[in-house]
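Q: What structure does this chain adopt?
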Amino acid sequence: MDWRREILTLVLLVSACSHTASPNAAPPAGANEEAGAAGRPSSGEDAASETGGIAKTETITVTAGGQPRIIIVHSPPNLNAPASLVFNLHGSGGTAADQEAFSGMDQAADARGFIAAYPQGAIALGGGFAWNVPGQPLVDGSAVPPGAADDVVFFAQAIAALAQRYPVDPSRIYAAGFSGGARMASQLGCDLSGMVAAVAPVAGLRFPSPCNGVRPVPVVAFHGTADTTNPYDGGGPPYWTYSVQTAAEEWAMHDGCGLTPSTSQPASGVQLTSYVGCAGVATVELYTIAGAGHEWPGAAQQTSAIDATAVMWTFFSAHPLPP
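A:
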């Protein structure tokens, strides 16, 4: 719709002009820190690194569509401006805090110097929240409630708000997510392809149709063959239906890749399917983990066959937004 395109164009301009803002600058309108009783951020604690730097975790509020939305933001002790920004989206019925703890991405952010942001959905579901994935029902089969927040617009506004508050490199903004968050990250690869450099869906790769991307988008995905929530071979609930391999093939076609992928075994029980020869700088990679269930590989108490966070960060590092 025209109104959505106008909003996305506006926030893209704001983001591009604001990436050198200081992390300590006053937040923009609609991006307010939620401080605790002692004046500290309400999520997490500062921690000194061995080099004397400070890792900081804070919860900010971004108002999108008239609705306040929270984002937990973790900035590492060795933050160098301009820095990469990785959005990490929770699964359906989860929260931002759940995803921060579940994925363990803060440790990778501290080690590699990127900003990790954990946004929270706005549709109440169970004890948490769900994302408004366009054209898709919720995991319980119900329709998205009338008047639900447009999460594509929310992410565009979140990018602009964080770029004003933190020293974000506008060419290195990425979206990862788990399950329902992976489906939303897949959507952002289409609808925000001019802002999001690459996406990394975990246990939830989809190819949105229609995909209105303005460029080929690099994709790296992870999925277990024993996932019964989002079955690897497709089937299951109405929001799922087709296989993960089909989703990867659709992304490869969208990105103009060669139709015949290569396969390799980077670790025991892990198959990597790679589509190369794509348009632009895109590649599509699918890590299939034999016997793994609905999980984030490499995280605590999850399969250790491969470290999804480490692999996606290497992939992200190699795929900035083209000039």
